[in-house]
Amino acid sequence: MRMARIAGSASVPAALRRRDACAPDVLDPRLNAFRADLADDRLRGAVEASRYVPGREARVVAGRAAVRRFPAPDAPLETEYIHGEPVRVFDIHAGWAWCQSRLDDYVGYVEATDVAIRQPVAPTHRIANLGSYRYAEPDLRSPVLDFLPRHSAVTVVETELVTRGTEYARLDSAGFLPLACLAAAPPRSPDLVAAAELYLGCPYRWGGKSFLGIDCSGLVQNAFRDLGIGVARDTDMQRDSIGEPVPAAAIDELRRGDLLYIPGHVLIYAGGGAVIHADGVSMTVRRENLAGLLRERGLAFANLTVRRP
């Protein structure tokens, strides 16, 4: 992971810093927008750059905006921003926008057409099920424009558009959604495990954050969002920030909703000896027996870091 040492860390908000045993004060480039030629104005005095800009307010207008490490279509996928997500745009060049999410601070490059430079407006609705297709016309047989995942924020400008008994809503960002997929309030689940269970069976995708594809830490982040709680994106960030460490020595000391971390992976304890996780081995979100999983992968319970939200 690329890091940059802070020149004067006192001016940098604590939330933007990462603690490290070898380098006590470093900036995490995943959470801070800085390059040799350009940096977030908030990092002035903390990193050296040719110029500093405050970033322009924008929102994501694609259903899922692929956030890449470099401005190239074959660059590694880091995460996804979803429709309606507020971002700051620091640079647009050659069809790519260099952005930072205002929800989890993640920095990366998205296709410039996936964001719209404008002051974010308060959404009127959210996608309340696992996702909805956005149609060109208020008709399920019309061309599909996009897929909007759960929690996508939308602004509805017209309803009562009924075709073949289905009511549609027209969006300010173009296209139509089935009204039954929308709710005025963000969707909620009773607890972390119930939220994770919604994604059982969906495919694994590195960097993904939707039912069409999700990774292990994306599953945790989405599940917490169902509780109205924002958490960090990547496993190492979550392991160091969510809840409190638990010195559990055996499976029977775990509680439903505990987070279990091994290097590069996280599982959610579902109770009864089972876990739910987005599994990169079977390439699906699955529930399985924790003892069996540890045995099959040559791990001991002592290899787990347990965090209790």
Would you kindly provide a written description of the structure presented here, covering whatever features stand out?
This protein is mostly beta strands. The chain has four domains: 4-53, no CATH class; 56-117, SH3 type barrels, CATH 2.30.30.40; 125-183, SH3 type barrels, CATH 2.30.30; 192-308, endopeptidase fold (from Nostoc punctiforme), CATH 3.90.1720.10. The chain contains four helices and 28 strands. It has helices at 192-197, 216-225, 235-241, 290-296; strands spanning 4-5, 17-18, 26-27, 39-40, 52-53, 56-60, 64-68, 77-82, 86-93, 96-101, 107-111, 115-117, 125-127, 131-135, 144-149, 153-154, 156-163, 166-171, 176-178, 182-183, 209-210, 213-214, 244-245, 259-262, 265-271, 274-279, 284-289, 305-308. The strands form nine sheets. The chain has a six-stranded antiparallel sheet with strand order 23-28-24-25-26-27. Strands 11-10-9-6-12 form a five-stranded antiparallel sheet, with no helix packed on it. A three-stranded antiparallel sheet has the order 1-3-2, with no helix packed on it. A hairpin with an 8-residue loop joins strand 7 (64-68) and strand 8 (77-82). It is globular, with a radius of gyration of 21 Å. The protein starts with a strand and ends with a strand. Mean pLDDT is 91; it is low at 1-24.
Features of this protein?
309 residues, mainly beta, SH3 type barrels, 6-stranded antiparallel beta sheet, 5-stranded antiparallel beta sheet, 4 helices
Judged by helices, strands and strand pairing, the structural class is mainly beta
Please estimate the helix content.
under 10%
Shape: globular
In DSSP terms, counting alpha (H) and pi (I) runs of 4 or more, how many helices?
Answer: 4
Give unreliable regions as ranges: 1-24
Count of DSSP E strands? 28
**Oligomer status:** single chain
What is the count of distinct domains? 4
Q: CATH-wise, what's the superfamily of the largest domain? A: endopeptidase domain like (from Nostoc punctiforme)
Q: What is the annotated CATH architecture of the largest domain? A: Alpha-Beta Complex
- Please report the distance between the alpha carbons of the first and last residues: 26 Å
